[in-house]
Amino acid sequence: MSALGAVEAAAAGPLFRPLGAEDGEQQPAEIESLCMNCYRNGVTRLLLTRVPFFKEIIVSSFACDSCAWSNTEIQAAGRIQEQGVRYTLAVTSRQDMNREVVKTDCATTRIPELDFEIPAFTQKGVLTTIEGIIDRAVAGLEQDQPVRRATDEEVASKIDEFIGKLKQLKEVHSPFTFIIDDPSGNSFVENPRAPQKDEALVVAHYKRTPQQAAMLGLGAEEANETPADSVEDLRNEVLQFNTNCPECNAPANTNMKLVQIPHFKEVIIMATNCDSCGHRTNEVKSGGAIEPQGTRITLRITDPSDMTRDVLKSETCSVEIPELEFELGMGALGGKFTTLEGLLKDIKDLVERNPFSLGDSSAPGKVEKLQEFSRKLLDIIEGKTKAHFVMDDPAGNSYLQNVYAPEADPELKVERYERTFEQNEELGLNDMKTEGYETVAAPAR
């Protein structure tokens, strides 16, 4: 029987259950397997589970009763994400060392203060904490120290000194930076303050380079040389292409249409409907270029009718509700074209679906905090509470409907601003040269 077959036989219900499920049904499947250390039989335990913003993973743990050898690793059970992800955490306290971390085998871990890096594919995937990752690095460095002391004492002493610095990091005598860079997009660092913004944690999504795509085994897509249709034909036609469902990976169809938003610009709306599992999703892409300036839109919600305003949130747009001390970073929820009510309900669902607030993973008071946040957000949706809704898009491709157009809206404020160097870096504009590149002399051969 295969490993997946054994898990299916042991599970009576959903194959993947949320991490920290309270129903007591989240039991691992046990499989007798060969020990690669003493070549006798041991036991492998497999647990199929979900973690937030990471979809499904397979946690496997092997233990041999004969030689006491053990091994633990994780594997991503979902697909490779469309973009890579980089988590940058400023570690300032012992509590930060207990943050839960999902690190896949293709992720690179760095601590710049020590000039320390764990390259991709040098460690197996793991579900652990920041302290656990440092402990694994220390164990790996200590593994061959006896041999080094016998052959090259100078190198061994330098490694001992570096191991001491790594161990001191766990006490957090001084702040340091912890970075996980995963081109597959399947790594994760916990935000214990959810749904509030974590000032110490920066999450950046980026487009993979050809080298990173090749490392993941993804072939470059060949550009189609078919002549482009006219813009008018695209506006009147719904295009359809084959894809896979993001939930069950079954074959599905995605519909795409070019839509003109009044008093704004053209956008591309894509909708996917899976006939196998019933999953539905929609996404919006800007039909134009990145604007010369960023846009910050502030709406003062004063009436229930504000909930019917059309909203275009691009992938680069962050959302803030100051009254709730809430901020949704760019990349979360993707691009959406909906109403203000629809976007706020999506935010409410995103917060309530966080499995780290349930079961053994929940910290004291976290559930009450999330429930209080949901109640306050529901009051805003129902028009019982006035609040400010802020959209900040460095690319300038987001939109909030002005119901008084073409006149000015007294409750709506639209600000244009110059992007910072960091914002241009995230958008890939700092290294982009669109003028004068043809005059640059070719390098001499």
Structural commentary:
With 445 residues, the protein is an alpha+beta fold. It is 21% helix and 32% strand. The protein has helices at 3-10, 130-142, 145-151, 153-169, 210-215, 231-236, 340-352, 366-381, 421-426, and strands at 17-18, 29-34, 41-51, 55-63, 70-76, 84-91, 100-103, 108-111, 116-118, 126-129, 176-182, 188-189, 201-206, 239-244, 251-260, 266-273, 280-286, 294-301, 310-313, 318-321, 326-328, 336-339, 387-393, 399-400, 412-417. The strands form 6 sheets. Strands 1, 2, 3, 4 and 5 form a 5-stranded mixed sheet that branches. The protein is globular, with a radius of gyration of 25 Å. Mean pLDDT is 81; it is low at 6-13 and 221-228.
Question: Given the C-alpha coordinates, what overall shape results?
Answer: globular
Number of helices: 9
Give the amount of beta strand, in percent: 25-35%
Helix content: 10-25%
What does the radius of gyration come to? Answer: 25 Å
Mean pLDDT across all residues, rounded? 81
Structural class by secondary-structure content: alpha+beta
Calculate the terminal CA-CA distance, rounded to whole Å: 61 Å
Largest sheet: 5 strands, mixed
Q: How many extended strands?
A: 25
Low-confidence stretches: 6-13, 221-228
Spell out the key features of this protein.
445 residues; alpha+beta; five-stranded antiparallel sheet; 9 helices
Blueprint of the fold:
Elements: H1 3-10, E1 17-18, E2 29-34, E3 41-51, E4 55-63, E5 70-76, E6 84-91, E7 100-103, E8 108-111, E9 116-118, E10 126-129, H2 130-142, H3 145-151, H4 153-169, E11 176-182, E12 188-189, E13 201-206, H5 210-215, H6 231-236, E14 239-244, E15 251-260, E16 266-273, E17 280-286, E18 294-301, E19 310-313, E20 318-321, E21 326-328, E22 336-339, H7 340-352, H8 366-381, E23 387-393, E24 399-400, E25 412-417, H9 421-426
Parallel strand pairs: 1-3
Antiparallel strand pairs: 2-3, 3-4, 4-5, 6-11, 6-13, 7-10, 7-12, 8-9, 8-11, 14-15, 15-16, 16-17, 18-23, 18-25, 19-22, 19-24, 20-21, 20-23
